[in-house]
Design brief:
mainly alpha, globular, 2 strands, two-stranded antiparallel sheet
Length: 192
């Protein structure tokens, strides 16, 4: 049993920050959503519940897996927000490492393709898309999925990167609108 105030428990602080980030995003406050989610992820250090296997191995293993999945979901959301706030090069560098370490993770593959496209590296984005599709088919014997296919088609049609990023993070309505491209990079702002 953990007997501590909520503000001292990293997991509680993480969950609160994730919820705050989602509220900021829903209100169209992209920089705040990004900052808050980045701070939430900064609370993570190592594997959750590491060293507790001997106490109650089944609980510790299952809870650790659940928490790691929760962190992964937050990381994917933060990567989307990186792209939304114009941190394309940062996202691209991180995603290159994540794809290399997790080559069959289709979410990382898709975001890597989108980051390349946001950095105006269209031919590399298309090549990465095709390589991801081949890898999934070769390794798993399954189709890479409709989301990767539709991203490739959107890139081939020249759909603006801003629209693809907005779709990736689930923007709806007029609360948030993309700004014009500045200095060769897509930028976003809130349209409150």
């Amino acid at each position: 049993m953990l007997n501590a105030p909520v503000v001292e428990v990293d997991l509680c602080r993480f969950e609160q920050a994730v919820a705050d980030s989602e509220r900021a995003l829903a209100a169209g406050h992209l920089p705040e959503a990004h900052r808050t989610l980045s701070a939430a992820l900064d609370l993570w250090h190592g594997r959750p519940l590491d060293g507790l296997d001997g106490l109650d191995g089944v609980f510790a293993q299952s809870e650790s897996a659940r928490l790691q999945e929760r962190r992964l979901t937050a990381l994917e959301r933060r990567l989307d927000l990186d792209l939304a706030v114009g941190r394309h090069a940062d996202a691209l560098a991180e995603l290159a490492g994540l794809v290399a370490a997790n080559p069959l993770h289709q979410g990382f593959q898709r975001r890597h393709v989108l980051a390349l496209y946001c950095c105006e590296r269209t031919s590399q984005a298309l090549a990465a898309c095709r390589a991801a599709r081949r890898l999934v088919v070769d390794e798993l014997g399954i189709d890479a999925g409709e989301r990767l296919d539709s991203l490739e088609m959107a890139i081939l049609r020249g759909v603006p990167a801003e629209g693809l990023v907005a779709e990736a993070i689930g923007w709806e309505g007029p609360r948030v609108r993309p700004l014009r491209r500045a200095a060769g990079h897509a930028r976003y702002g809130s349209g409150l």
